[in-house]
Amino acid sequence: MVRLVEDMQSGDHPAAPVLVLANDADAGGLKKAAAMGVATEVVDHRPFKGDRVAFEAALQEKLQAYQPDILCLAGFMRVLTEGFVAPWEGRMLNIHPSLLPKYKGLHTHARALEAGDAEHGCSVHEVTAALDDGPLLGQARVAIEPGDTPDTLAARVLVQEHRLYPAVLRRFAAGDRDFLAL
After folding, report:
1. Do residues 161 and 97 touch, judged by C-beta distance below 8 A?
2. Which of 14, 124, 151, 181 would disulfide-bridge 168, Cβ 3.0–4.6 Å?
3. pLDDT by residue for the chain (182 residues), tens digit each?
4. 125 classed as catalytic
5. Under the cellular component aspect of Gene Ontology, which terms does the record hold (predicted)?
6. Domain 2-18+67-181 top-level CATH class
7. Would you list the domain boundaries of the chain?
8. Whole-model pTM over 0.70
């Protein structure tokens, strides 16, 4: 979760991290954030036993304490309800490991290989109540190579995710909603 920076110096990023919120206490981003002095919180979804509304209320409670301007989802593998998404409309981003609109949901690398696709990649999109369906803000492509497995393909896509997401976030935080292709 980031807050927009109003007193940017030349070359600075227009957003600053204020919180890394995870539903898994072992999420790698928590350790990285803590090492950088960014606040961290965990709301484990398991005690809510499928009660999405209660889980999302707990998430909202944590978010309210930090007042982020933009939510940036990455590796958050929970489907969010319209009730959670609506207050963040136009301010929540997600990175997805496929060239949306292809392969919404899970197992995207295996699905691209099974389909015989020549290329695969990742997409950053605005989050809406529909799964992996919001306006596209950017994509990065990788060639599918002979002998690729879901794991080898995922590793190459991840490199592009780490390039694409910060670039799209920089533009988005500055007010630029144009599509970015890497």
Report:
1. yes
2. 124
3. 887 776 555 457 899 999 999 999 999 999 999 999 999 999 999 999 989 999 999 999 999 999 999 999 998 888 899 999 999 999 999 999 999 999 999 999 999 999 999 999 999 999 999 999 999 999 999 999 999 999 999 999 999 999 999 999 999 999 999 999 99
4. no
5. cytosol
6. alpha beta
7. 2-18+67-181
8. yes
